[in-house]
Amino acid sequence: MKTLKTPVIAIIGPTASGKTDAAQLVAQALDGEVISADSMQIYTGMDIGTGKLPASERIVPHHGFDLLDPGEPSSAALFQGYARGIVEDLDARGKRAVLCGGTGLYVRAVIDDYEFPRGEQVDNPVRERYTAIAEREGAQALWDLLNERDPASAAVVHPHNVRRVVRAFELLEEGKSYARQKEALSEIPAFLPAVQFGLAVDPALLNERINRRVDAMVAAGLVDEVRGLLDEGFREGVTAPQAIGYKEIVAALEGCCTLEEAVEDIKQATRRYAKRQRTWFRRDGRIRWIDADDGDTERIARDIVSHLETVSA
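RE: above sequence
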């Protein structure tokens, strides 16, 4: 494990749990800075739909925003290198690193000893070859090919999840197994010392928050944001166009559905995503859970700081 003056503070939780506000309050209290661990907030211009904290509301420095143009591909491996560099810089300057996000793989990629296949990087010929098969012959055909070559890995990947099927091929080319890697996730050792806090919100209450949040995004100009991105070639991107809240609005703008239907699709997709986030985080027994039903981020931040003071005492 790498040595740091103080451990990383990770504040995680599902969408709309209040982690963004709580994280910056914790950072403010501890003379720290926030690193956003969100796979879509890294994109410039994708602000409203990703829930990116506006610059006018940031009370401490934030990292991890606006790193790429929407047309550029991203990966957990690339974020890993970036975020670890920020952590080292903050530690050298005597600042606390507060890692905040809902993308579970991005969080673990930073604090745990994850080793990614070369295919996690951009401009990889293996990824390009198998992605082309999916585009040419369809997702099912690509999965069928994986099932022939590595049935164990095919059994744990949904045929429609082209990205993970391609990742399984990338590992296979290196003589590794996606299935075995997935089994070993819980056994990956820590790379950075870290204390993790999760914000727990009752699912029914969280769903209500999500619905209100989506309505607020639309009222704040989400449609215009997506329209502007399309004018800049957003559709040609690899990763960004898959973002919840964007692909649904694109469908409405292209006449595939009404705006009202798109908004309902966003709410449903976000609720499902929040459920997957809860499932992912609940598997990690290191996370200390904080009751966040009341949405009182100041109280939540105090609870986290108080716990940290108790641990360090």
